[in-house]
Amino acid sequence: MKSIENGQKDVISCSLGSKCSCSCSSCCASVDKGDTVEEELEGNVNELNEIVHHHVPEAQLIENIGQELVYLLPNKNFKERAYSSLFRELEETLADVGLSSFGISDTPLEEVFLKVTAEADLEIPNTGAVQENASAEAKEGEPQRSDGKGSWQNKGGQLILQQIKALLIKRFHHTTRSIKDFLAQIVLPASFVLLALILTVIIPPFGEYPSLTLHPWIYGHQFTFFSNEQPDSEHMVSLRDAFLKKPGFGNRCLKREPLYNYSCIATSMAWRTPTVPYHVSALFRTNTWSPDNPSPACECSTRKKLTMLPVCPLGAGGLPPPQRVQQSTEILQDLTYRNISDFLVKTYPTLIRSSLKSKYWVNEQRYGGISIGGKLPILHITGDQIVDFMKDVGRMMNITGGETTRIAAKEMSAFLKYMETEHNIKVWFNNKGWHAVVSFLNVANNAILRANLQQNKDPEEYGITAINHPLNLTKGQLSEITVLTTSIDAVVSICVIFAMSFIPASFVLYLIQERLSKAKHLQFVSGVSLFVYWFTNFLWDIVNYIMSAGLVVAIFMSFKKKAYTSPTNLPVLIILLLLYGWAIIPMMYPASRYFSVPSTAYVVLSCVNLFIGINTSAITFILDLFENNAPLLEFNKILKKIFLIFPHFCLGRGLLDLAINQAVIDVYTRFGEERVPNPLHWDFAGKHMLALAVQGVVYFILNLLLQHSFLSTRWFLQNTLGPIMEEDEDVAEERKRIMKGGSQNYILKLQELTKVIFRELF
Question: Transmembrane region positions (predicted)?
Answer without folding.
Answer: 182-203, 490-512, 542-559, 571-589, 601-623, 685-706
